[in-house]
Design a protein that fits this description.
single chain; 10 helices; 17% strand
Length: 317
C-alpha cells in the first residue's frame, strides 16, 4: 500500500507538470536542451544516500523570489527598441562618440562595423553601423544625443523608428509555471526522503531531474524578457555628409531643394492622413450623435404636418 501511494503521488506530479507545459507561451522561442544521461546508480545503494545527491544544495542555485515576482507582475513589461539613420560629417568619430555615450549611461555596445562607400564623384567615404543597449529610462535621452550629432536635423535625419512590445502576459504565464514547477519539485524531494526502496528512489530521481530542467528553462526565459525590457537596443546607421551631398550648380543646389520638397510632400501627406483619421474616428460619430436625433425629430414633425394637412380638406367637406 505504501508503494502504491508513492507511485500515485509521483503520477500526480507528472500530470501537474504536463498541464503547466501546455499553458505556457513560448514567445521567445527558446526550448529545453536535451539533458545528459542519468548517471548509473548502484543497485543496492540505500535510499538515504541517493536522497543526498545534491538536490537540496541545487535548490539554492535556482531559488526564485516568488513574492517579488507577484509584486512585479502588476507592472507592465515593455521591450522598447529604436532604429535611427543619420548623416554626419565623420561616421567613425560619431560611432566612437555613441560608444562612449552608451558606457556613460550604464549600457554597452552590442556590435559596430565600419566600411567604405563610393560617392558619385568616385571618392571613397566611410560608413558605419553601431548597435548599443542603454537603460530603458535613458532611451529618449540617448536618441536626442545621437540626433544632436547632425548638422541639419531637417535633412540629415533620414529615418527614425521606435517600437515597443508588451510582454507582460508572457512573463506572468512563465512566472506562474515556475511557481507550479517549484511546488512539484518540493513534493518530489519530500517523497525522496520518504522512499522505502531503491526502485522508488530511482523513479523519483528521474521525475525530479525533468522538473529541474523545466525550472532552469523557465527562469532563463523570464530573465531574457526582463533584461530586454530593462535595456533598450538602439541601432544607428551613419552615412558621411559627403556621400549624400547634393549636386551644386553655380551655388544652386537643386538636389537639396528636391529633398526639401519631398520632405514637405511627406509631411503634407501625413497631415492629410491624420485629418482623415480624426474625421472618421471622432468627427463623424460625434456629429451623428448630435444631429441624428434632430433629424428624426424634424422628420416626425414634417410627417405630422403632412398628415394634418391631408385631413383638413376632409373636415371641410
Amino acid at each position: 500500500m505504501r508503494k502504491n501511494k508513492i507511485w500515485m503521488i509521483v503520477l500526480s506530479a507528472t500530470i501537474l507538470l504536463a498541464s503547466c507545459s501546455m499553458a505556457r507561451n513560448m514567445a521567445s522561442g527558446a526550448t529545453a536542451q536535451e539533458s545528459p544521461a542519468m548517471e548509473s546508480m548502484p543497485a543496492a545503494a540505500p535510499s538515504e544516500d541517493i536522497a543526498k545527491m545534491g538536490f537540496e544544495e541545487s535548490m539554492d542555485a535556482v531559488e526564485y523570489d516568488t513574492a517579488a515576482a507577484e509584486s512585479a507582475s502588476s507592472e507592465r513589461i515593455v521591450i522598447k527598441n529604436a532604429n535611427l539613420s543619420i548623416v554626419v560629417v565623420d561616421p567613425v568619430a560619431s560611432m566612437d562618440a555613441i560608444d562612449k555615450m552608451a558606457v556613460e549611461m550604464g549600457g554597452f555596445v552590442v556590435n559596430s562595423n565600419t566600411y567604405k562607400t563610393t560617392t558619385y564623384s568616385g571618392r571613397e567615404v566611410p560608413t558605419a553601423t553601431i548597435t548599443i543597449r542603454v537603460p530603458a529610462e535613458n532611451l529618449d535621452e540617448a536618441m536626442s544625443r545621437i540626433k544632436g550629432m547632425v548638422e541639419d536635423p531637417e535633412i540629415d535625419i533620414i529615418s527614425e523608428d521606435v517600437s515597443g512590445q508588451d510582454v507582460t502576459g508572457e512573463v506572468n504565464d512563465l512566472e506562474s509555471k515556475l511557481r507550479n514547477s517549484q511546488a512539484a519539485e518540493a513534493q518530489l524531494l519530500e517523497l525522496m526522503d520518504k522512499a522505502a526502496s531503491t526502485e522508488d528512489v530511482v523513479e523519483i530521481f528521474r521525475e525530479l531531474k525533468s522538473v529541474r530542467e523545466e525550472i532552469e528553462v523557465t527562469q532563463g526565459q523570464i530573465k531574457y524578457y526582463r533584461e530586454s525590457a530593462s535595456l533598450s537596443a538602439i541601432s544607428v546607421y551613419l552615412q558621411a555628409k559627403e556621400a549624400v551631398e547634393p549636386i551644386t550648380v553655380a551655388g544652386w543646389k537643386p538636389g537639396l531643394q528636391a529633398q526639401k520638397a519631398l520632405q514637405a510632400l511627406v509631411k503634407g501627406g501625413q497631415y492629410l492622413v491624420d485629418m482623415l483619421i480624426w474625421l472618421i474616428i471622432f468627427a463623424i460619430p460625434f456629429l451623428a450623435v448630435i444631429f441624428l436625433p434632430i433629424y428624426f425629430i424634424v422628420k416626425a414633425i414634417h410627417k405630422r404636418r403632412q398628415k394634418n394637412a391631408a385631413a383638413q380638406p376632409k373636415k371641410e367637406k
